Automatic annotation (TrEMBL):
Segments forming a coiled coil: none
Record Gene3D superfamilies: Dihydrodipicolinate Reductase, domain 2 (3.30.360.10), NAD(P)-binding Rossmann-like Domain (3.40.50.720)
Name of the protein this chain belongs to: Putative dehydrogenase
Domain GFO/IDH/MocA-like oxidoreductase: 146-278
Record SUPFAM superfamilies: Glyceraldehyde-3-phosphate dehydrogenase-like, C-terminal domain, NAD(P)-binding Rossmann-fold domains
PANTHER family according to UniProt: CONSERVED EXPRESSED OXIDOREDUCTASE (EUROFUNG) (PTHR43708), OXIDOREDUCTASE (PTHR43708:SF3)
Highest classification ranks of the organism: Bacteria, Pseudomonadati, Bacteroidota, Sphingobacteriia, Sphingobacteriales
Pfam families: GFO_IDH_MocA, GFO_IDH_MocA_C3
Residues of the Gfo/Idh/MocA-like oxidoreductase N-terminal domain: 6-136
Organism the protein comes from: Pedobacter duraquae
GO function term, MF aspect, one: nucleotide binding
Amino acid sequence: MAQQKIRMGMVGGGKNAFIGAVHRIAANIDGQIEFCCGALSSNPETAKTSGESLFLPEARSYGSYKEMFEAESALPDDVRMHFVSIVTPNFAHFEPAMMALDHGFHVLIDKPMTLTLEEAKKLEAKVQETGLILCLTHTYSGYPMVKQARQMVKEGKFGKIRKVCVEYPQGWLSLPSEKDGNQQAAWRTDPAKSGISGCMGDIGTHAAQLAEYISGLKITKLCADLNIVVDGRALDDDGNVLLKFDNGANGILMASQIAAGEENALTIKVYGEKGGLEWHQEEPNTLRVKWLDAPMQVYRTGHDYLSSFAKHNTRTPSGHPEGYLEAFANIYRNFASTLAAGLNGTTPTPEMLDFPNATDGVRGMAFIENVVASGKSTEKWYDFKL
């Protein structure tokens, strides 16, 4: 079968939507994906004008996602979209994702996957029922040096993992920006749109996923302290969580959006018996590797000594910065390559299959609900329940 581009539709991401543009750039970087249709706003008029501004064909710029799924599923196989990218706020993830799967479309969706754990479980069950693929955009797992870190841990370079420390401080919500017309702040601090958690749902989930992804371990217990620092907020904007993992390792997770002066200072440190590693999102091409009985090593993106997973997710020669957009694009490319393999009757490589999925989405929602429950509990340790 001749190779073909993977065709993408989009729900949300129209005018004034920051993340929609990021998704479209990421999808376009490798030339594998064609943006062919969209329902780009919950407002039909805005959806249409957004489609026009992005040069979508008028007939495939839809006023609602329901209209899009029905119309696209009626098109010939060689025309209709293959998957939908859902880039709406949290409350508007579940219904379009379920409908897309029911109409035979694969799904790529922003995290957290749904508004509640119950919805996440239903969505995972629907993925299993349909045999379709769901990809979750935990962006930071797409960086080459995160891939390298994961492989070194997986190969036992550091021995048994003993401690995981991950922190994600931001400062952009240090003031009540949601009251000053900041749309990003408004929906993230609104329980009806964001869910039961603010900071932990928004960026704490990234930190938790990265901790599990690199360490290869699963969180089994936690002890959470959640805070509302800015007066008048309904959801947490800061928090600290002690962690226990399934091999007996312990950990610390800090997430804050009131750390004034910080941008996106996501950092992770993982320690084993023989040594450890350290990675900073704001310096993503560098992985520091520390040994118990030898000098520290500095691993850099783009070199031959890296793992196949790091190389697969690297585009430029060493010394050329690869950042957030490329990491986002790695998730899109791996997802699209897996879809293409299915269409062509070939087997995707392990490197292609390396993207977050519905099971990760369920764990992310479970993290949110367990952290909130732990924060309200008088128990020191709270079991991580799925």
